[in-house]
Amino acid sequence: MPPMHMEVVCSRGCGYRDEFSFSVLACRDCRGPLDVAEGTYEWPANPVSLGEGNTPVVRLVNVGRMLGMEKLYAKLEFLNPTGSFKDRGSAVMVSTLRSAGIRSAAEDSSGNAGASVAAYCAKAGIEATILAPESAPPMKLQQISFYGARVVKVGGGRSAVAAACRQYCLDEGVVYASHNLSPLFIEGTKSFATEVASQMEEPPEHVLFPVGNGSLLIGAWKGFRGLGTMPRLHCIQSEACMPIAAAFAGQDWMPPEGGVATVAGGIAVERPPRLRQVLGALSDSGGEAVAVAEEEIVRWQRRMSVDEGLFVEPTSASALAGLEALLESGRIGREEATLVALTGFGFKDRIP
Q: How many CA atoms lie within 13 A of 302 on its CB side?
């Protein structure tokens, strides 16, 4: 079993606190997502690692010049072992699964999280089943399968896939290793902030994230808060799927009847479970949430390759499109040190 002292608290601040359990992924009182209580997580003696983290921070000289920014940087999260930032969360979550003697687990994912969980489960000797949308990029599904995981394709959007995964776990009696809901996954993404603090001579004033459910943004927020320094954290979404950006603006957003269609599949989360927590992190840090057009995402994916030699998936490119929008609106100053999280490798997705 996991360390008995590990506790969870409600992310909505309702006061709920209890011992951690793999079977409980929501607050028993208000149904909000759970977080690991501060200071109660301890790495297992024999953690599962593929060498995740310590991704480089590089200066974007050419793009910075084009945007009139001298202090524009990117953290290359796509250089994590499976090609995305998700490895930070998977390392913690799967390490705890193995320490508890768990032999099988399931996850729902459009690609990156599924590949990450599949890889770490392979390393840990845990049987993994990944439920994915039928529309997920074939390259990502092939990567998941190549790690030995079973892939189950589900019709409908991300919400339908999540519901199918929950039912599968109940029917098969396996652990639901949800990257969206597991408090362990969020615990793993906190390392982003500690690395940034050690890698940059001048702390960033702004950090931009492509956001679906927000696990990297939330983890970074927790990490920076623990360090006693807080840049403005910004959430970037696609106009095709913008529940958080709409909520930030006080607007309603509903997914289209036929399902969401966007080149940025990694952030196509129609009903993010941690939406309120993302909004809280934005408010606390003084950040913004904006949505960008599909054509701008595609344009920035090309620009990053041509101008900087960085081949990122469209999801990552959305953060650059968001940066341009925030510069034009004056919410980010061109003289301010700014960091963009490039979260996924370009080889993992279709090229628009």
A: 7
Average pLDDT of every residue of the chain: 94
Summarize the confidence of residues 165-189 as an average pLDDT. Answer: 95
Choose one of 136, 161, 184: the last residue of a domain: 184
- pLDDT confidence of 322, banded at 50, 70, 90? very high
Provide mean pLDDT across the span 266-289: 95
Residue type, 270: E
5 and 79 belong to one structural domain: no
Q: How many domains does the chain have?
A: 3
Kindly state whether residues 36 and 176 are assigned to the same domain. Answer: no
- Say if 51 falls within a structural domain: no
pTM over 0.90: yes
Give CA–CA dist 309/203, Å, rounded: 25
Annotate 245-286 with DSSP letters as a single string: HHHHTT------TT----S-GGG--SS-TTHHHHHHHHHHHT
Q: Please give the single-letter amino acid code of residue 227.
A: L
Domain of 27, in residue numbers: 1-42
CA–CA dist 76, 155 (Å, integer)? 32
- CATH number of 137's domain: 3.40.50.1100
| Percent of residues, the chain, with pLDDT higher than 90 | 86
- How far is it, in rounded angstroms, from Cα 312 to Cα 130? 23
Chain centroid, CA 21 distance in Å: 22
Q: What is the pLDDT of residue 257?
A: 78
Q: Is the pLDDT of residue 3 over 50?
A: no
SS (H, E, C) 5-41: CCEEEECCCCCCEEECCCCCCECCCCCCEEEECCCCC
Q: Residue 153 and residue 174: Cα distance in Å, rounded?
A: 18
* Closest residue by Cα to residue 103 from 120, 123, 126, 130: 126
Strand partners, 35: 9
In a domain, 48, yes or no: no
DSSP 3-state helix, strand, coil percentages of the chain (rounded to 5)? 40, 20, 40
Residue 194 and residue 256 in one domain: yes
The predicted model gives 136-151 an average pLDDT of 93
Q: Which two tokens stand for residue 197?
A: 């603090």
Q: Which two tokens stand for residue 146?
A: 């190549």
